[in-house]
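Q: A reviewer asked whether we had any structural model of the full assembly, not just the individual parts. We don't, so I'm hoping you can provide one. Inputs are below.
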Amino acid sequence: MHDTFEVFVEYGPLLLEGLYETVLLTLAGALCAFMAAMVLHAAAASPWRPLRAVVRLYTELILGLPILVLLYCIYFAGPGFGLRLSAVASGLLTLTLYYSPYMAEAIRAAVAAIPSGQIEAGQTVGMGPFAVARRIVLPQAGALALPALVGLLIGLAKDTAILSIVSVKELSYMTKQVVSRSFMPFEVWAGVALIYWVCLSTLDLAMRRLERHLTRHRRLAP
Amino acid sequence: MFRGELFLEAVGPIAGAAIVTAELTVAAGLIGLAAGALAAMAQIGGGWGGALAGRVYVSLMRGTPLYVQLLVVYFGLAFAGLSSQAFLAAALAIGLNSGAYCAEILRAGILAIPPGQIEAAQAIGMGRLRIWQRVVLPQAFIASLPPLTAELTIVLKSTPLASVVAVTEITYTGVLIQSRNYSAIEVFAVVALAYIAMAQVLLRGSRALERRFRPFRA
Amino acid sequence: MNERAAPPLIRAEGISKMFGDRWVVDRVSFQVARGEVACVLGPSGSGKSTMLRCLNWLAPPTEGAIYLAGERLGVLEAADGTTRPLPAKLVRQQRARFGMVFQQFNLWPHRTALQNVMEGLVIVRGEPKAQARDKAAAMLARVGLAARQDAYPSQLSGGQQQRVAIARALAMEPEILLFDEPTSALDPELVGEVLAVMKDLAERHVTMIVVTHEMGFAAEVADRILFMDEGRLVEEAPPARFFSAPASPRARQFLERLLGGRPPVA
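A: Here is a predicted structure for the entire assembly that you could use as a starting point for your response.
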C-alpha cells in the first residue's frame, strides 16, 4: 500500500501530463464529432437522394463496427490509401467518425420531438426559416438532446483510453509507462481507474446540473 | 491496391477467430446478465446496504474506461495467482462492465411490474426469494428483452478490446496477419465485414427471440 | 341460516389499519361461519379492499386480532399473554390457507393458464409436476376453461383471465376465498361468466368474503351483508333486510344513490 502511494507520488507529474492530454482529446474529439454530426444531420435531410443514401449507409456501417476496429482501419490501413496520419490525428479522426452518427441520431430525435405546431406558430408571426431554427427549434432541441449527448460525451471520454494502443500519449499510455517502470501493474491500473472515475463522475455531475438548468422551464409547469 | 488474394487468404483464419469472438460475447453476455440481475435485486430489495453496493458498482463500471477495467481485472487475476488468464479476464471485464448497464435496464423492468403480480404470489404463500425467482425476474427479463439484446450487441462490439491482452479473437488475429504480410487494407476489410455479419446475426436472433416471447408479455 | 350456532371460521376483532396518519380501517369486528358467503359493500374508498388485505396479512393490521379456525393470525401469543410477530415463513403458511382473487386478476403474464394454476402447487406445496398438472387441469375445467389451458393471459378475455385467477386460488384448497372486487375491471358483458362461477362455488358451500359492487349478486348469493363506510363496519344484516330496510342512514343513502330506490333483482 505504501509502495503504491510512493509510485503515484513519484510518477504523479507524468500521469497528470497524460490526464491533460486526455482532457484535450475529449474536448477536441467531442467538438469535431458534434460538428460532423451537424453536417450528417443536414445531409440526412438533403433533397438529393444519393446523399441521403450515403449518410444512411455510413451510419449503418459505423453502428455495426467496433471503435477499436475503426481505429485500426485508419491507423494501419490508412497509409495504404495514402492517408498518413500521426497517432493523435488518427485518434481524433476515429473519435469523430465513430461518434458523429450517434450524435446525429440524438439531434434528429430531439428535433423530431418538437411539435410541428410550434414551427407553424413561428411562421405565423412572420419568422423566416433561420429565425425559426434559431429561436424556436434550437433552444428546445438543445435541451431535449442534451441527456443523450452527455451520455455520448462520457462514452467518448472513456474511449480516449483506447487511443493509447496506437501510442497517443494520454493517461492510459502514461500508465503503461509507469507500469513498465514500477512493476506494479495491478495497483497502478487500479489507482488510475480511480482517477478516471473521479474525473468522469465530476463531468457527469456537472452535465446533469447543466441539464437541470436548461430544462427548468419544463419543470416549472404545474 | 486492393489485392483479392490477400483478402481471401485472411477469410479462413478470421472465420476461425470469429468462434472465439462468439464465445467471448456469450460468456461476457451471461456474466453481464447475472451481475446485472444481482445488482438490480440489491438496489431494489437489498436494504440500504444493498442499494449502496449496487450504486457504487454501477457508478464504477460506468465511470471508468472498459480498457482500464480490462487491465485491472487481468492484472488483478495475476495478483491473485491466476496469471495469463486472458480469455477469463476479458470475459469478466466485459461482462462486469455490461452488468452495470443490464442492472439499469432490469431495474426499470422490475419497477414496471404491477405490484398486484407480487401480491398474487404472496397470496398463495410464496416466499421472497421464490417471488424474485418465479415472478419478478422472469417478467423483468421478458419486458427488458429489446434493450437487453441491444446491450448484447454492445458486448459484441466491446470484444475487440480483448486483443489488448492477446486473446486470439477476430481483431487480434487481424492485427497478427497484417503485421506478417503488410495487408492491412484487405485484412481489416475482412475484420470489419466479420463484425457487421455477426451484428446482423445477433439482430436477427434477437428479433426472433422477441417474437417468441411476445405472447408472454402483459 | 343460523350462523350463530356454527363456530366461526374467521373472526376479526377490532382490526384497524393506518396508512400515514389516516385510519383506513377502523375497529372492524365480524365473524364468518364455515360455508357462509359474506358480501362487503360500501362506497369506494371506504376501506373494504384494505380490510380484505388485512385478513390474509397482505396488509398486516395496525391493531386488532384475526382468528382463522381459532388460530391467531400473524402473531405468536405466549402463555404469559405477551405477543410477538410470527416468523415470515409461518405467516406465509397461514396466508396460503386463504385464496385471493384480485380486481386486476394479477395472472402472471409469462405463464400459461395451466402454469398459473400449477405454480402454487409446485412451488409452495412442493407437489410433483404431473400431479399438479392434473389438479390444475381439473380446476380449469371447473371454471369452464379446459379448452384454454395452454393460452397465455394476454390471449384470454378479461372474464376468462378472472376465471383462471379463481382456479388458481381454488387449486390451493383454501379454507376461505377472498374476492376483491372481482368484476370491477371487466367489460359489462363479461361480468356474468365470472359471477356464475362464484355462484357455483357458493352453492358448493365454499366460504367466501366478497368485496363487490354487484348488488344483484350480493342480494342473491350472500348469506350476510357487511356494509362499510369510512373505514367502519356500519351495518351487518341478511341481504333481504339490508336491501329492503337498511338500518343506518349511511346504508340508505348508499343504496339510494346506487339503485335509485329500486330493490336489486336477482
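A: Points you may want to mention in the reply: The longest helix of chain B spans residues 4-45. Residues 58 and 100 of chain B are 5 Å apart (CA to CA).
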